[in-house]
Amino acid sequence: xxxxxxxxxxxxxxxxxxxxxxxxxxxxxxxxxxxxxxxxxxxxxxxxxxxxxxxxxxxxxxxxxxxxxxxxxxxxxxxxxxxxxxxxxxxxxxxxxxxxxxxxxxxxxxxxxxxxxxxxxxxxxxxxxxxxxxxxxxxxxxxxxxxxxxxxxxxxxxxxxxxxxxxxxxxxxxxxxxxxxxxxxxxxxxxxxxxxxxxxxxxxxxxxxxxxxxxxxxxxxxxxxxxxxxxxxxxxxxxxxxxxxxxxxxxxxxxxxxxxxxxxxxxxxxxxxxxxxxxxxxxxxxxxxxxxxxxxxxxxxxxxxxxxxxxxxxxxxxxxxxxxxxx
Length: 327
Fold this sequence. Notes:
InterPro entries: GH, Glyco_hydro_5, Glycosyl_Hydrolase_39. One of its GO terms (molecular function) is hydrolase activity, hydrolyzing O-glycosyl compounds. The protein has helices spanning 6-12, 36-49, 60-63, 74-85, 115-129, 155-172, 195-204, 223-226, 231-237, 264-280, 318-325; strands at residues 24-27, 53-59, 89-95, 136-141, 177-182, 213-216, 244-250, 284-289. The chain has 327 residues and is an alpha/beta fold. The chain has a single domain, classed as TIM Barrel, CATH 3.20.20.80. An 8-stranded parallel β-sheet has the order 5-4-3-2-1-8-7-6. Helix 2 runs parallel beside helix 4 (74-85), helix 5 (115-129) packs parallel to helix 6 (155-172) and helix 6 (155-172) crosses helix 7 (195-204). Mean pLDDT is 93; it is low at 1-19.
């Protein structure tokens, strides 16, 4: 077990009494670029580590880059079919927009000019994959950031998109669960909105009727979710507190440059704390760790490369072992 000392492992892996099975989720965007052989090997490894949920990206700008009549979904078909085979539930993330649908703006983060186009796309996905057991959909990613919803967040436009997707998905799969886009944790600027402010604004514009759960990316900012002015209090304000909050991204990088970088032991401790919460906090849905494997070899400055449980060379970080210990 590369990079792990016995004493430190024993310290972090002390026994925990779980009151219920933990809904262990995983982000793994690299699946979209794997060969069939690599995919099967990854799914076998995820099964060993106890992954129960997988967040799969359905990037509209890649799937329908040229027009609304042609779809590139062969790799997604493989992933969804393997998830069904390995008994792993899928949360499908539907996001981004091709140039032909965004009204002439810069792709892919600019939203569609007509939300109905997005709704049609969501409908096709829900109809295609419901038979394989995919009944959970997240609508957009971090819509409170300008880099994800260009040029700047718009709660009213987002609600229109959410409504179009919700109605379209439910029409073809009435049992589906629709999760609002996982929210980032910025301050208010000209191109970003605080998560609580954005959530309040979409509720004010009617989002309550078009979501079954709220998505969030706390990244250590749990107080912004559960504190007195957090997301849960916003949901209570609109009498919607009985719905779950799904943590569709959570993690920490172990290399690169910047204040977010932590040691490998600290990453494992953060992972344990996150999944401990799922047994002690009510109305908390699956938690999806970000990511399964580092995207880069050592030596890169970008910390986004190093959120994995595995290093780029497939050696195991302490967090990989910690993930396995959670039940």
